[in-house]
Amino acid sequence: MRELYPSIEPHASGLLEAGDGHSVYWEECGNPDGKPVVFLHGGPGGGCTPSHRRLFDPAKYRILLMDQRGCGRSTPHASAPDADLSANTTWHLVADLELLRTQRGIEKWQVFGGSWGSALALAYAQKHTDRVSELVLRGIFTLRQGELDWFYEGPASNIAPDTWAGFVGGLPESERIPGHLIENYGKVLFDPDPAVHQPAAVAWATWEFSNLTVQPRPDLIEGAQEPLGATAFARIENHYFRHDGWFTPGQLIAGAPRLAGIPTVIVQGRYDVCTPAITAWDLHQALPSAEFILLEDAGHAYDEPSILDALITATDTFANLS
Question: pLDDT of 9-25, one tens digit each?
Fold first, then answer.
């Protein structure tokens, strides 16, 4: 089993002035003359962590990470009581990536994305195909209505009824209406009163973090309890989900064939509760040239052992492609 590469620190970082009042944090690690790769975090709203730098061989890769609009070290932060997310959409993020690529003087880069990051990677690659050298995708999520309904409107409660009770409990009793939970969470999450929106945000984040792995991970669940981080995470996710990611129905799967010339690896846990394997399967049917890896002992999190092994195997293999 492959493990994360040793800890590294950025050798460059800054704030990208992206327009609309947004400053997007970026950092660069590894070999300045290495193969460019950009890491796209999940959520949306999850932000980057130091361990994400360690998915790539620092001797071979020029590693770029970016905290997407409204989260992590980017400003303004979506946890602010009066946060305005009107200029925070998928297509704003795609434009931010292109701005970062050009400002860093990169011709083409590998695009690595998991969970929401896989959706953003697909959206970016379908719009800027000639700028992508390879794709590494994990825990595939494309914001189709069935995917959203599965995890946020009730069916997943059949697998996790205990943690689902906490998710539903984050709403006032009058708002616990099956089929309208995402919509009704939006009302509470965007209430300007922290006494209203923060407990709801923690309930939203706890539901998701409780279902990332096959075996319980108390450290992940503990991370969902920090009110400001949970608020940005829950608000941004809810905002994107209420707008279907600004995609037409099935857009990312339908557009996948145009990526046939890009070497691609799809890594999926069979027991992924958050983003079930059917979406990864559908993507592979639309993009049969991709290598499809369905892991029999894994859920959703990138650092479950078999997922981590498959991801680092992919990045190591691609490191040697010209």
Answer: 999 999 999 999 999 99
